[in-house]
Specification:
Length: 485
């Protein structure tokens, strides 16, 4: 990384101010942005370099949550530049090329970051190609693309097709910021850096797997985006199916990007596709009460704000084990967790009362806000003959590594893109397979006469139909992390 220019398209937007610039500055403070680097912002409004620097600092002060070293900030801000232009105009890209030429010494690598509305992804890549800014004679060229990546299989295929006319697959870094989270990366470490879990990580010992990503907030003024998208596209296509892959995939041959991505794709290929009639049996989509009255939501909107879906993975390891995935807005709590529920012991020889309810073991991988791992197991209640109680073994990052040990996901992802490590980014085949799984579910729930959305109360855990989905299989939703009993 001797000489690198990071070009951020959409630098005047929310993502850049809230996440990207704070992440880049922290990488600089930690001395991880090595060599001669520059950050060039590109957006529509006519800012000067100084205006960008001022807004960047405000973003860091407001959103970063770490100590700012003012000397370091002074050095960093002088590496920030702003260029005004329009994504759809080739002349703006000719201007960008000329400006970069005068700023850079050669050779210089370039990381282009598309923090823009998705409708501009292909426009920008096309214009970069047309103006010779993808050519690699003077250093590598890579492009980071934000989510959402398409809205269905057809649109994802089209974007892939269009951008692959200009870029090689290994130049494309499709981001899912969830994969940059420390606790998400720890799933593979927990599974494959220990010997105690893997032997029981299969259909012989696991009863079911539950993955929850719950948001406490509602629309937060994003109705224009969210009401056209809904929870399945917004959360399942990327985050939840990524988590399922990490829990269910086979051990990769190495930690290298394509070995990991091959296994993720392989497990998604084994996820059962539902027929139209099966969708209702295995999924519940809902909307929180009051959603239709939110500002910016279209009249009689059929957009789901909650979904619970039961998936099956048809392979040797997982045959018959339900994977219950759920996500929703306006839930009782903000939390993300994965609960592995093990089977009950095959035989209990203890003198227990009739109909005694035995709790089976659970291993909970806690992603946020309780960052750690909980293992629940049975122990004997003292002074009884053989009464049992579930107790909890807990590990928390903050206890071992300190309160501020967990970096922002974007730090890791930006650094990996600069280093050319694509393991935490989505390959084109994965983005398409995820849509292949979800398209029939989205489609079946689009007709309110056939499948009306289940209405649920705000600050609840979703509609009762989602509880029934599990109860029908004699399972129930489990809170494995935090202080839940
Ligand atoms: N915000 C988040 O926390 C977040 C989280 C995850 C993913 N994302 C994704 O990140 C991307 C950006 O989101 P955002 O929230 O930052 O969006 P945003 O606040 O709406 O920012 C859009 C940016 O694009 C620029 N822009 C729009 N049209 C343009 C045009 N025709 N020519 C030149 N510049 C143009 C805007 O510049 P001007 O206004 O100066 O024209 C602005 O800098 C989206 O794909 C979003 O889905 C965002």
């Amino acid at each position: 990384m001797d000489r690198t220019t990071i070009v951020i398209f959409g630098i005047s937007g929310d993502l850049a101010q809230r996440k990207l610039i704070p992440a880049l500055f922290n990488l600089y403070q930690k001395k991880r942005l090595k060599g001669d680097f520059k950050i060039v912002g590109f957006a529509g409004r006519s800012w000067s370099d100084e205006e960008l620097r001022k807004i960047a600092r405000e973003g860091i002060d407001k959103f970063a949550g770490y100590q700012v070293n003012d000397d370091k900030w002074h050095e960093f801000k002088n590496r920030l530049y702003y260029i005004s232009g329009k994504f759809q105009e080739e002349s703006s890209f000719t201007n960008l090329a000329n400006q970069l030429e005068s700023l850079e010494d050669k050779p210089a690598n370039r990381l282009y970051y598309l923090a823009t509305p998705p409708s501009f992804f292909t426009n920008i890549i096309d214009n970069l190609g047309r103006t010779g800014q993808i050519d690699e004679e003077n250093g590598w060229r890579r492009v980071v693309i934000e989510k959402p990546f398409g809205t269905d299989l057809e649109s994802a295929k089209k974007i892939n097709h269009d951008i692959l006319k200009v870029l090689r697959e290994d130049q494309i870094y499709r981001i899912d910021h969830y994969l940059g989270k420390e606790t998400v990366q720890n799933i593979l470490i927990a599974r494959f850096a220990n010997t105690i879990f893997e032997p029981v990580w299969n259909r012989n010992y696991i009863s079911n797997v539950q993955i929850t990503v719950a948001e406490k907030v509602g629309l937060e003024h994003r109705a224009g985006y969210y009401d056209t998208v809904g929870v399945v596209r917004d959360m399942f296509q990327n985050h939840l199916l990524q988590l399922l892959s990490l829990v269910a995939m086979e051990p990769p041959a190495s930690y290298k990007a394509n070995d990991q991505r091959d296994e993720k794709v392989k497990v998604l290929k084994a996820v059962r596709r539902f027929t139209h009639d099966e969708v209702k049996k295995y999924s519940v989509l809902g909307q929180y009460r009051g959603y239709k009255e939110e500002e910016g939501v279209v009249e009689n909107s059929q957009t789901p704000t909650y979904a619970a879906i039961q998936f099956f993975i048809d392979n040797w390891r997982w045959q018959g084990v339900p994977f219950y995935l759920r996500s929703g807005k306006m839930m009782a709590e903000k939390m993300s967790e994965i609960v592995i529920q093990f089977k009950c012991p095959p035989h209990l020889m203890f003198p227990l009362p009739e109909n005694y309810k035995f709790t089976s073991n659970t291993l909970s991988l806690c992603l946020q806000p309780d960052e750690g791992i909980h293992l629940k197991f049975e122990t004997k209640v003292p002074d009884t003959i053989a009464e049992t109680k579930s107790v909890d073994l807990e590990y928390h990052y903050k206890d071992v590594f300190g309160e501020k040990s967990i970096p922002e996901a974007y730090e890791r992802l930006l650094l990996d893109a600069l280093l050319g490590d694509a393991a935490l980014f989505t390959r084109s085949d994965r983005s398409e397979i995820a849509w292949e799984i979800l398209d029939p579910i989205i489609e079946a729930w689009q007709n309110p006469n056939e499948n009306p959305l289940a209405i649920y109360e705000q600050n609840s855990w979703g509609p009762k139909e989602a509880d029934e989905l599990l109860n029908n299989q004699e399972h129930s939703w489990i809170h494995g992390c935090g202080n839940h009993s």
